[in-house]
Amino acid sequence: MSRLEPKPREELDQEQQPLHDMFDAMATKVYGDLFTWKIDGAEVGPMPVFLHQPKAGTAAWHLTVAVAQIKLSPDAKETAIVTVGAHHQAGYIVYCHERLATAPGLLSENQVTLIKKGEKPGDLNEGCSVAFDIAKRLTSTPGPMPPELWDRGVAVLGKDGVVGLLHYIGFYSYVSMFMNGTGVPVPEDN
């Protein structure tokens, strides 16, 4: 059970409601029923954390939107996110993003299963391969990323692609931390 109980909109104060409404509109449009993000009218996942401190939550929401607009191939992005979520054992992130990652044309269920175990699938394309390697390195080994990994990333994704990938890795590490700290559960439909 989450340490911050999800609340329906009518139980939120005037500072929390606009943040609720922004997320609700986006999630309805983008996610639909792909995974559970609302139970009994209350938003679950990261939203109880965002709503608990609405000033920080609103800033985090704006960062969420900005990071989502970074140009990076969807398969490389989802490879990195599942790698980060799996490393941190952030169940809700893995639950959501394995569904996004296995959308047609992205990753296979077998590839996602291996990534969730911390293993690199041998059949990843170049972009996903370097995304996995960079995410794995940055989440599991302290210190700077080796120059040869940076160079490989730039050769495959371009400099903007690598910087975008770093934003995804950092952002989902942040989200993993507060979701783990508050005990965000995986919905029962998993």
The total count of helices amounts to: 8
Strands, count: 2
Using the coordinates shown, work out and report the CATH topology of the largest domain: AhpD-like
Strand order of the largest sheet: 1-2
C-alpha-based Rg, rounded: 17 Å
| Separation of the first and last Cα atoms | 15 Å
In percent, how much strand structure appears in the residues?
A: under 5%
Task: Please identify, by name, the CATH architecture of the largest domain.
Answer: Up-down Bundle
Overview of the molecule:
- By secondary structure, this protein is mainly α.
- It folds into two domains: 9-68, no CATH class; 74-181, AhpD-like, CATH 1.20.1290.
- It has helices at 17-30, 47-52, 54-68, 74-88, 91-101, 109-116, 126-140, 147-181, and strands at 38-39, 42-43.
- It has a two-stranded antiparallel sheet.
- β1 (38-39) and β2 form a beta hairpin.
- α4 (74-88) crosses α8 (147-181) and α7 (126-140) crosses α8 (147-181).
- The longest helix has 35 residues, at 147-181.
- The mean pLDDT is 93.
Characteristic key phrases:
globular, 190 residues, mainly alpha, 2 strands, 2 domains, AhpD-like
Can you give me a brief rundown of this structure?
With 190 residues, the chain is mostly helical.
Topology:
Layout: H1 17-30, E1 38-39, E2 42-43, H2 47-52, H3 54-68, H4 74-88, H5 91-101, H6 109-116, H7 126-140, H8 147-181
Antiparallel strand pairs: 1-2
Helix pairs in contact: 3-8, 4-5, 4-7, 4-8, 7-8
